[in-house]
Amino acid sequence: xxxxxxxxxxxxxxxxxxxxxxxxxxxxxxxxxxxxxxxxxxxxxxxxxxxxxxxxxxxxxxxxxxxxxxxxxxxxxxxxxxxxxxxxxxxxxxxxxxxxxxxxxxxxxxxxxxxxxxxxxxxxxxxxxxxxxxxxxxxxxxxxxxxxxxxxxxxxxxxxxxxxxxxxxxxxxxxxxxxxxxxxxxxxxxxxxxxxxxxxxxxxxxxxxxxxxxxxxxxxxxxxxxxxxxxxxxxxxxxxxxxxxxxxxxxxxxxxxxxxxxxxxxxxxxxxxxxxxxxxxxxxxxxxxxxxxxxxxxxxxxxxxxxxxxxxxxxxxxxxxxxxxxxxxxxxxxxxxxxxxxxxxxxxxxxxxxxxxxxxxxx
Length: 363
Hints:
Elements: H1 4-18, E1 21-25, E2 31-34, H2 43-50, E3 56-59, E4 62-69, E5 72-80, H3 84-118, H4 124-133, E6 139-149, H5 155-165, E7 173-175, E8 181-187, H6 194-211, E9 216-220, E10 224-226, H7 230-247, E11 253-255, H8 261-266, H9 270-281, H10 291-302, H11 307-314, H12 318-332, H13 339-362
Parallel strand pairs: 9-11
Antiparallel strand pairs: 1-2, 1-5, 3-4, 4-5, 6-8, 6-9, 6-10, 7-8
């Protein structure tokens, strides 16, 4: 139901244009909005008209009309004046308020619909029926973007910025299912690529970080072709955000399609992770590698296990780098110059990071 303030604004605008006074009452005769005090209108008169079969009635200089929503009576409107134009102004006011009721109801219902859609709370038949009723295209390519807000109390600001960037008219919808993030359901081109989605995410981060001065991260799922699959893209975006907090902390934009092995590790049971780490490291689990060692390992992996290129980029002698690698081999039994051992060590480090993340959630 729309607020009395919205109705008041509507009739004030009509009064300013037409000079016709209009009052709106609820079904018990209580004033909802008014442009003038009509002392001769009683609650009994309004109540009697509301319960009569007539849709309009003239009593002296007062034109009484009914405002409905899909057949249900919502308000009684009274326009005051002697001319024939007063009745037409009253009819215009009725149409305007009825359209406002529909628009506000659709806005609320759309938000509620998408929240339930994302959380898989709808049956397939309800998705298609309600989607059609709310004028939401069923078959359209969409991707879900999750905008995480570090300052939770600023979520309304982020929402307003997103509404300014994306509109319902373009098939884009903005909602939320918790306080820490805002969800953008974006309609994209049929041939939209990963780069296209990255461009949208980068734009969101750039504008909100620059103009709103807020620190946000954006994660997004893959493109889905039907309304019923939007929840799939949402789950992907949510996983991308979670995995990004563990393995890609420095990134502001995380795509589900680029999570790689981090996505696999994130879905492993904790007990299996512990067994794997014990088999690889025994009692020497590298929970806290120093920054120099980590930097050496990461740079070595980035250069595809190339000792010469890695030593050049680290500005160290080749023999120094070899010494560091052999030191790691001595403590772990894995030679990072060997592809299989390097792969095992890389996965093991990610599993260790995942276990540390799980431990942090317990406290």
